[in-house]
Every structure is written in C-alpha cells, then in structure tokens.
C-alpha cells in the first residue's frame, strides 16, 4: 500500500489542476502539449494553490517533495512509479499521477534557451536549477530517470503514461504529442517545450500559404530534406525564428506531426519561394 502524506496531497492538487487546465475538454481532437507558459502556469496555480506567488518556482518544489533523494537511485521516483502502477491496474480514465512531474521536466526543457552560464542543450543543468540540487543529488535524479525497470527506461515509462491516458480518452481531452526521435530520455520533454504555443498556431498559416492541403502529411526527419514543399517569402523569417536555434530532429518532427492535424481556415495564394524542408533542416 502506498503511503499518503502532506507532500503527496499537495502534489495531487497540482496534478489535478494540470489535467484540468492543459488537457481540458476544449482541447478535444487537437494536439496538446505540456507547454507551461506563464498564463497557463497561473491558471494551474489558481486552481491548485491560490496563495502561491510564483507558480513557476512552486511547481518544482511541489515535485521535489515527492522525490526520494538519498543514496538509493532506485528510490528517487519510487512513489511516482508505484502510484502509476496502481493507476494502470485500476484502468481508470482519471489523470495519471505523473502529470506534475512531467510538467516540471517540461519546464526544465523550456528553460534551456536561457543563459546563466550553461550551454543551451544542458537539460540536466536546468533541472538542477529548478530543483535546487547539488551535484550528488542531480546524479541520483539523472541516473534514476535513465535507469531501466523491467527492460524499459524510467523516462519512457513516465512519459508513456501521458500518451496512454490521452489515447484511452480517444482524443476527448487532446491528442498525444510525446515522442523522442533522438536524444534518449531528454527527447520526451523537448518534444513538449521546443515549439511554443504561439508558434504552433502560426503553422496553420504557414501550411496554408504554401498550399499544403488539410490533413496532409509531411515526411519524417530522414526524408524531410528531399521534400519540395515551397516556402513563401513572407514566412521565411518566421520559419527561421522558430527553427534556427533548436534541434534539427525534434522540431521538424513536431511540424510533421502537426501537418496531418491542421484544418485550413484560409488560403493566401502567393508566388512560391524557398523550400520549407531546407529551412527546417538548416537548424544546428
């Protein structure tokens, strides 16, 4: 039997609020991301813990209180994995007990573009900042996240719970978007954080401007380079601003995932220019 105490009670208030705010019924039939921009975090805070002044700092503290940070790597995520197993055994449509943890990992991925003396790709360094971890505790968390349980990485077990939940709901609270084509373990949170919500909304215009029919598909990363989808001059700068400083694998895959799910609301006929795929694949 899994214990319940004040730290977990607080955690589940945030977990429930994330489910209600991010995966609301208004998201039915559309791709949904754990992209916790400021207004989203504030809405989650208002539901989970109205007295919290800084939701972006409070959520990591809430999650940290549920981690077992001692010398046993196998125990770091033990509470989450035990509760996840119980959730699966019940076959319930309630949100999985992992949403708050996954949201915190997405926050770390989102902060990778900021400064503070670390390279942009230093995911675990950002995670250490969020959770206020020293080198030893970061080693425990990193090792626990990457270790295998029953031949599966803990990172995959945790993130699969989100996709599985949305699939069980048959898209009624959004379509799953978690994937990791490259960068094992950190690829999952990167898939949620690298393209902001405002930019994802602009892809519809980008597809329409370039005559991509609704419900079409784009090739996967390995064949993107040979695609001849034209890029209109008006959107060349937009594409560069979105893609030029992020992963050359995760970002094109995000676009390829969105393409079959967009519905054209307007069409702007203009003379074609460059190739969209070349713009996507020039990123470092």
Describe the structure.
This protein is 52% helix and 3% strand. The chain has helices at residues 6-22, 38-48, 55-64, 78-90, 99-110, 123-131, 135-146, 154-168, 187-193, 197-209, 221-224, 233-243, 250-258, 276-281, and strands at 148-149, 152-153, 230-231, 274-275. The relative contact order is 0.12. Mean pLDDT is 76; it is low at 220-254 and 259-284.
User: Helix/strand/pairing class, anyone?
Assistant: mainly alpha
Number of helices: 14
Order of helices and strands: HHHHHHHEEHHHHEHHEH
- Low-pLDDT segments, ≥5 res: 220-254, 259-284
Set down the secondary structure blueprint.
Layout: H1 6-22, H2 38-48, H3 55-64, H4 78-90, H5 99-110, H6 123-131, H7 135-146, E1 148-149, E2 152-153, H8 154-168, H9 187-193, H10 197-209, H11 221-224, E3 230-231, H12 233-243, H13 250-258, E4 274-275, H14 276-281
Antiparallel strand pairs: 1-2, 3-4
Helix pairs in contact: 1-2, 1-5, 3-5, 5-6, 5-9
Notable features of this structure?
284 residues; mainly alpha; two-stranded antiparallel ribbon; two-stranded antiparallel sheet; 4 strands; globular
In brief, what are we looking at here?
The chain has 14 helices and 4 strands.
